[in-house]
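queue> pop job 88
queue> type: inverse folding (structure -> sequence)
queue> payload:
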């Protein structure tokens, strides 16, 4: 892998972590990632382990909902307030499916929970519509927040991510993931395995769209999946692997399970490198 430098805000990082560069042969032993664009950051050593098209903005689908959550929480609107899903929240096009019927009433907290955990599109749109000034003001706040976070190539046009005009680079999304990880509400809601809400007389059960949260092998701090045809399958997460803080951004995976498999490959590779480093530092 090349040792090209990538500027993530004020931090200068290198494409191969020096701590793991034991020999020229080791540098060639890398997981074969199948996502089209990615950036994997070992925050403990401030090193990028892998990257491809890290600075190229691309559609991010429902990864958008992490920004939606940040703007909602920044607004300090009551999470206990009951909001009604209306026809204005009925989005159209491929991927616009929702289990929330028009007229459903839920708390802002439940809408945020479903948006982050199950990628509920009407929930995300209802959150934006109930922002002071409505969706236009909400989208403006999303773009202002992106600029504040240093997401230099990011642009948002809707709160759900159904629009292919919601774009960001993998480097941008590292900033977004870290900002989201700073909020306990986002950490909890995005990593919950399931959540049930009462809609009228019915209880609706939702599951997390990220299978990794169910695995005891993972310690995930925050995560979000995404999919529209223009973006492919996407996954961002912040996790702890053998005591090291790692951010993974995986965009435009071609298969339903490829993004998850890529994350598994990265974790296993890093665990193996850490074992090698420990053995090298403590020879028998």
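queue> result:
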């Amino acid at each position: 892998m090349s040792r090209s430098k990538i500027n993530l805000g004020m931090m200068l990082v290198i494409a191969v972590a020096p701590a793991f560069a034991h020999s020229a042969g080791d540098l060639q032993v890398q997981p074969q990632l199948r996502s089209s664009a990615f950036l994997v950051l070992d925050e403990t050593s401030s090193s990028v382990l892998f990257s491809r098209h890290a600075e190229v903005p691309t559609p991010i689908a429902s990864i958008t909902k992490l920004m939606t959550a940040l703007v909602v929480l920044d607004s300090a609107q009551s999470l206990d307030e009951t909001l009604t899903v209306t026809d204005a929240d009925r989005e159209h096009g491929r991927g616009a499916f929702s289990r929330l019927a028009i007229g459903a009433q839920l708390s802002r907290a439940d809408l945020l929970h479903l948006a982050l955990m199950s990628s509920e599109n009407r929930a995300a749109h209802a959150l934006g519509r109930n922002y002071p000034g409505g969706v236009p003001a909400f989208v403006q706040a999303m773009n202002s927040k992106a600029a504040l976070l240093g997401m230099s190539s990011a642009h948002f046009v809707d709160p759900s991510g159904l629009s292919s005009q919601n774009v960001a680079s993998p480097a941008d999304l590292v900033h977004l993931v870290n900002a989201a990880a700073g909020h306990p509400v986002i950490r909890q809601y995005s990593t919950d395995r399931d959540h049930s809400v009462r809609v009228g007389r019915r209880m609706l059960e939702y599951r997390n769209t990220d299978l990794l949260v169910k695995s005891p092998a993972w310690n995930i701090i925050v995560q979000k999946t995404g999919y529209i045809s223009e973006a492919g399958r996407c996954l961002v997460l912040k996790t702890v692997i053998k005591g090291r803080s790692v951010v993974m951004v995986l965009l435009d995976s071609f298969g339903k399970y490829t993004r998850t498999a890529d994350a598994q490959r990265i974790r296993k590779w890093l665990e193996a490198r850490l074992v090698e480093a420990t053995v090298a530092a403590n020879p028998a």
